[in-house]
Amino acid sequence: MMASKRPKSTGDKKNDSADSAGSSTELGLPDDIFPLVLTSGTQELFECRVDKDVTRESPYKILRKEEILKDMKTRAAVSDFHPIKQTVLNYPGEELLLMFDRDFTCGQNFYLVLTEESKKRILEPPVSAREDTAEGTSLDSPPCKTPECQPWVSLGSEREIEEESVRDSRPRLKYRISRVRRKFGAPVTFTDCNAQESKDKYTECTSYDDRKFSIERMEITTGVQAVPTLRSISTQTRWTYPRNMCSQYEFREFTEEEKENIANSENFRNFVNSVVSRFEVAAQQNMIFDVFFNDWQALHEEDGIFGGKVETHLKEYQSFTDLHFTKEKTISDINWHPTINGLIAVSVMEKLSSEGKINGSAKLLQNPPLIFFWSFSDPINPQLLLECPDDVLSFQFCPSNPNIIVGGCMNGQVVLWDVSAHADRLQGTRSAAGKATSANECALPAFQDKRELNTPVVRYCAVSGVENGHKARITDVQWLPENFEISKAGIPVENKAHICVQVITCAPDCCVMFWDIRLPRVTTHSLTERKPKVTETPHLNRSDVPNTFKHLDLSWKPFIKVALPKKGTGAEYSPLKFSLRDNMNDNQTGGSTETSEQNLEKSEGGTEYALLRASSAKQLKPLEDISTRFYIGTQDGEVVYTDWKMEKDNDSGRLLSTKPSHCFLVHDGFINSVRRSPFFKDIILTVGGWTFAIWKEGVMNGPIIHSSCSPKKCTVGYWSPSRPGVFFIGKEDGNVEVWDLLEKTHEASQTQNLSTTQITCIKPWIVPPKQHFLAVSDHSGTLHILEVPWSLRSPSYNEKSNMAKYFEKEVDRLIFLNKRKEMRAKEKKDKEAEEQKKKMEPKMPEKLEEQIEEENLVHYKTYLAMEKVILKNMGLLSDEEPALN
Amino acid sequence: MNWSFETLKRIQTQKGVQGIIIVTAEGIPIRSTLDNASTVQYAGLIQQLVMKARVTVREMDPQNDLTFLRIRSKKNEIMIAPDKDYFLIVIQNPTD
């Protein structure tokens, strides 16, 4: 049997092959091993005891060569290693491998591996042996092994199976049902019975909510699928008729109680506290400094036009002269048409010279005096001519109906014209700038109405009776404004008709007359009176004279005559011009076309003047705020302030006019203009002689401003409509002076010469928005239209308030002046009285010289006594000193 | 009631003040020195304006809040002081 190595069970094959190689020499042992017998003592020494250190599994033991040699030396021949002494000495390595041979395959129980290679081979075979064996198995056909039945290894699945299986938990119940014997074999009916029907057939344990016990499901995992379902549905609604709905609402408000409650609450208090301080700061800030004030812009307004020449002169815009009619004639009055822009009317009359007046009546028939209507569009032909019975000195358009014109004549008659028939023609002139004719309808020259080329002449439609009117030439005519009228007693009452119905005239025959264009209240008496008068009229009714004022023709009478008696003397004032306080039409200068258009509409609605009746004073409400006092400028240069209200004279019971309250002789010549300022209702400008004066109503001491005498007579004056401190003065030598009271008060700020003859009338006019015109007429019959430059027409910053302050200052000055005068007068009187008194005192007898000396000595003595006392009091004099003598 | 009147009088006596109105946050007037129609009109209009102004200020910066609102017009100046529950509106005519 060959010795087979058995390192491991897997290494069998290799070993087998190795053994088979070795087994060829059955008897001979391989070279590299040597069987040994190791006694137990040796085994203990080398720690290779059988079955303890060395077993079947680990049969090798590594011994050290030195220890073997030592053992051999110690035990010499007894050592087990004796037979191999030589081989051990020769062994190259340090360690020898001892193999335990259990089965005694090499003859002994141990064997010693003698070579290094074998040793290595034994110790390190496993890896290569295994691989070889693995290869070996795949190469060889695997032997089929039937899997052996392994015992059951429970992994815990019996429990589940137990749970799932169904078993009888108890033995099955068996019931045996038997019936009565007699029913044996009888058919049986089995029915089903619902257990729930009768309660006693069953008992149930219903579930109930156990209060003490509740399980809350904290989390559920559910799957949800959401699918939108789409459906189309349509319905038909009934569309009823549309309705306007409105709801009324009002503001939410608190009741008084609630307000009180809130106001008393704590919250409210806190709020007010916190907020008030903020406001005080803000309000004071506003007062201290105006943050939003634009200095730059304000500067611009004061400076005027910057850069280039500053236009200050009145530029000549147009001038009108009619060669046929106005030769050797003068213009007495100018009036702009209130509604139509660019239309101006002038009244022309004979130049007033004494010879002319005497011979005047003869010229009347040759050349009837006319009022010309000029339009800017046609400088050669006048638009309309009004025929006058006599030279008209003053006329005015009716403010409420510009087709009615009233005028006052040289002979004292008041004349009325109605130009409604030609209103279209006049209107057409506004738009036809540059066109020769105003009519647009006829284009064919041959068929043009010849009348349109010729200026139409309109005759007056009513004139007052010569005996009823003034006895002297009427110098001023004014319409009363439409908001009030005057009753018979002179009391201003409200005007229900809202059209101008009354006219005031004045003449140097010392009265001011009030006329009404309506008939007085109808009484049967007057009716009968009137009729015969109508038939008696010598004038034939011409076809082209409108009948508007037929009722007044020749029978027109003033209803109030205001006489102007002078104080003290029995004489009277002879008024030339007057000015009312509340007459808004006095200074109508255009720019406000709205009100006049309204009036036009009213009048176009058809006011039949003939049908108007003066209402009884009792029915109308008297107006309190209309002042009945007015200023009059007289022929002698006096300015009279009087009242037109009639007083009842106690003796005779008649209504008499009151005596004028104030009269001032200021001007050196007759007064030719009395004009109210359009900005201040109580400032009046009077022009007369060589000076002009400005008055303030209410200040009765004198004029607040009185100009110095100018070298030439002042012939006319008028305020500027847009600048409160500017007015125009016309002079005898044809100069127009522009006075700016804020600039210079001692002389005119500007003078411009317009013609060689004196200026007779100045009237400014504003064509909105920007054109300001000045119509100036002169004695030679030419009408000049001037354009007012920007510097003269636009007011400077705060001009009105500055002017107001200036006037106040002047008033104060006047008052002061008067006070001083009084004071001086008083002083003078006192002084005179004193002087008088002195003179009147009796002369004292002369004293003798001795007496005088005695008196002096007495005085001296008293003086010394006094001195002593004083010094004593001051402590400067001691008591011991003797009194000086 | 008197006390709050007096405090308001202090503002009223300032130069140029035309009217004072106190309204709740909803715009219902509590006290006013103007006539009823004007008061109610001012209250309604200004309340909306103040709301808008407040929202504007706060949106830009949530820490911020409206303390005072002044509207300057040609003729006068309207000053509004809003609070949590009430507004005070003062209409003033500045120096002129």
UniProtKB/TrEMBL annotation, chain B:
Domain Roadblock/LAMTOR2: 4-92
Keyword NAD included in the entry's annotation: no
Stored InterPro entries: DYNLRB1/2, Roadblock/LAMTOR2_dom
Location within or outside the cell: Cytoplasm, Cytoskeleton
GO biological process, one term: microtubule-based movement
GO molecular function, one term: dynein intermediate chain binding
Keyword hit for Disulfide bond: no
Keywords, comma-separated and alphabetical: Cytoplasm, Cytoskeleton, Dynein, Microtubule, Motor protein, Transport
GO cellular component: cytoplasm; cytoplasmic dynein complex; microtubule
A Pfam family it matches: Robl_LC7
Primary subcellular site in the record, as a coarse category: cytoplasm
Family, as annotated: Belongs to the GAMAD family.
Task performed by this protein: Acts as one of several non-catalytic accessory components of the cytoplasmic dynein 1 complex that are thought to be involved in linking dynein to cargos and to adapter proteins that regulate dynein function. Cytoplasmic dynein 1 acts as a motor for the intracellular retrograde motility of vesicles and organelles along microtubules.
UniProt-recorded name of the protein: Dynein light chain roadblock
Protein species of origin: Paramormyrops kingsleyae
